[in-house]
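Hey forum,

I'm writing up a methods section and want to include a predicted complex as supplementary material. The small molecule is zinc ion. I've pasted the protein sequence and the SMILES. Can someone with a working setup run it? I'll credit the forum in the acknowledgements.
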Amino acid sequence: MSYETVIGLEVHVELLTKSKVFCGCSTEFGKDVNTHCCPVCLGMPGVLPVTNKKAVEYAIKAALALNCEIAEYSKFDRKNYFYPDLPKAYQISQYDMPLARKGYIEIEIDGNVKRIGINRLHLEEDAGKLVHEEGKGYSLVDLNRTGVPLIEIVSEPDMRSAEEAWLYLNKLKTILQYIEVSDCKMEEGSLRCDVNISLRPAGSEKFGKKVEIKNLGSFKAVKRALEYEEKRQRELLTQGFEVVQETRRWDEARGITTSMRSKEEAHDYRYFPDPDLVPMIIDKKWVEEIKTTLPELPDEKKKRYMRDFGLPEYDASVITSSKSFAKFYEECVELYHDPKIVSNWVMSELLGLLNEKGMEIDEVVFKPADFVKMLKLIDNGTISGKIAKDVFKEMFETGKDPEVIVREKGLVQITDEDEIRKVAQKVIEENKKSVEDYKSGKEKAFGFLVGQIMKETKGKANPQLANKVLKELLG
Amino acid sequence: MKLYELTIHEAHELLKKGEISSKELTLSVIERIQKVEDKVRAYVTINEEEALKNSEEVDNTRDFSTFLSGIPVAIKDNICTYNLRTTCSSKILENFIPPYDATVIKKLKTNNAVIIGKTNMDEFAMGSSTENSAFFPTRNPWDQTRVPGGSSGGSAAAVAADECIYALGSDTGGSIRQPANYCGVVGLKPTYGRVSRYGLVAYASSLDQIGPITKDVTDCAIVLNSICGWDEKDSTSADVPVDDFTKYLVEDVRGLRVGIPKEYMGEGIDEDVKSAVLSTAKLLEKMGAFCEEISLPHTEYALWAYYIIAPAEASSNLARYDGIRYGVRAKNYDDLIDLYKKTRSEGFGAEVKRRIMLGTYALSAGYYDAYYLKAQKVRTLVKRDFDRAFEKYDLILSPVAPSTAFKIGEMVDDPLKMYMSDVCTIPVNMAGLPAISIPVSFSNALPVGIQLIGKAFGEGTLLKVSYTLEKAVNLEKRKPQLD
Ligand SMILES: [Zn+2]
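Reply by user p_vandermeer:
Happy to help. Structure tokens for the complex are below, copy them as they are.
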């Protein structure tokens, strides 16, 4: 029997508000433990939460960008459980009346656009962090993160492969970064993801027993864990076993999932409406105002690049996949007449170097204006395209003005016909065989001779002139 | 002149004229405490040193422009006071010193009030007799073999015994009105949202409300003036204009329409309590009001719905006491779960555990709809009863409690019977309405009061009618014998 994989994702995203969701404490990451805490976020006896309007605004912004319907009426509920990182022993979250529902994200898979449904998006508070020290008989609690606003985005079980899940996650991250509500740094915990995966006989409508996987530390881990789990479940099913409905943990080092707890041990969170917070009545006008603050989103931007800049779909996808990347590109295009040439450089040279160094576009030291200056140096014949690549590398490493690089390294193109003629004569002298070949009709030999001229001049000879001069000399 | 016997407004006049100082007044109250506290046991913590220091500070400023300036107040021990132990009369918070002030305390301090101490209560405000304190029971100043009522029993007893000039209590199901009634003082439960709950250690958040316990109605208006108002720290606090409640202190009930719900006057209510209500009605009619029997048909369900909703919220509110960050932690434990279990087993008393278990059960998967959700529906029906009544009537008159103060120990083994003592006050909390308890007579040397229930934010009317009644029945200077 063949099986179909069914995947759904629950993504928690920390919002970039300056203060926490139910008190005024700072949300800044990486500060000394327990320095960003007040009686409210510590859950001291008698304190009360007050909702941070900015957090609601960011959540609405995210919901709109994910094509969700915003609820006019929603409320906060308490999710009760005991854990030392949860000071009140309940998390303020949203249960049956989330802020937003029924959205979607579009991904491209095998050249087709696929829509992945979003079941719900709600606002909640983050928990603290436990610090376990090796060999110590105790754990310490850091409550700086307590009360940082989170949105939870629950997808529909619409993904059919680890690849789709990976694309969905990337798209989600891109959108959230575009609208600047989160930095989505998985390594800092500002984006966390739990996945649900089940297999069912192909064509079946009924869902199979699902497994939830936690402890996923990177996008790659998500993909690997899903691939592993898909295989594990398929093997179980083909061998006639059943999949146990449970929560599993991803073991990054061993590349496997291991059992964490079964359904029987699942929590009863005893949700009920938080009596300390009045229900949220979301004003439609406010939603409309927030809508106007949404920037151009990646899909629209991509379409515009294809339409206005004449970029191929692939280029447009890559460039718009990160807001900073697109911003860099657009700044260049603003200063340069040919978007396609910019794209060529960005796609090959810039992306190549970034990948090679494992860097993000934000870390690039040179300015778009200098990059465009370099392109203009090619256009006005100061340097050749080939030399430009070296100049570019230098710019990438040092952030220097390309004109300075050209001057310092003496890379100015030779446009003096006489000088080139001298070199060409020398090349003809030294390559009699190739000259013969050319004269007997082998066009390739001409290219070789031009190449020799370039070599002699360390690439500085203007290629058009070299061509012209060589042709004259060879009659 | 016994300074400790003064009301706020009397003391204020003397302070303003410079005839007494705040320090004299405070000392008088401290001496009174020293003299009678053994008999009453109203206080968990006496803030003697600080109080004297504060009174001196107020004397130095000579600023007695506000009513509460320089006047000693007792605070129920579930209202957080900066740097002053706040225990909720529970072992689990025995060592808890809040790092902040409740909003009401901030307001009192702005008015230069002198905090004389923290008063005993039923543990976490759960109870109707102040016998559930983890430390000791408080006794009724009128009869020390009887309870002062609960859960603000310490505050009510302290006011009745002149161990303070006035006090703050909290009322979740009658915890201000019922002890005020048993102790023969005035207790007001304001409209839900009228007074900020920030800093009130939560029992049942949707029902809790802080309010004054005072020697007379005038003081009640004065205290309400200074503690109420919208608070940015409490999102359930109401953004409504704040009246000057002292302007309602006039004798006038002409044309007032008063409903007396028959459901509050039936079985289980003692005859002397009923007759206090009926004679009050007569008195009101004599003064030009119109009284008639009304029906609030869902009253009988209110108590049972309350005992689902309040414990449900309590089970969640009290989950934070786990011995991890503050309060008392069990000494010996094996692991984290054991630490939680032992801390909570050792730290909470029987009544608190009973309600936590009730609430946990009512909220658990599979029972939520049958209990919590249904109780919320009953709550809506109870509210609707009141809404309907207030379309026709300005005020509702009823008993405060089924009987006068009962004997210490009389009901400790029968929690259900104990729960009944709040049967007349609970519906008011369910509906979020304001209500006041004022003494109107005595029965067997024990005070008997009546309850007046008002429209939401109708505290003004309550105070006006209470003031009129207070003047008419004139019990003002009758004091318990403690010397
Ligand atoms: Zn805080």
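Some notes you might quote in the supplement: Residues 387 and 459 of chain A are 7 Å apart (CA to CA). DSSP finds 15 helices and 16 strands in chain A.
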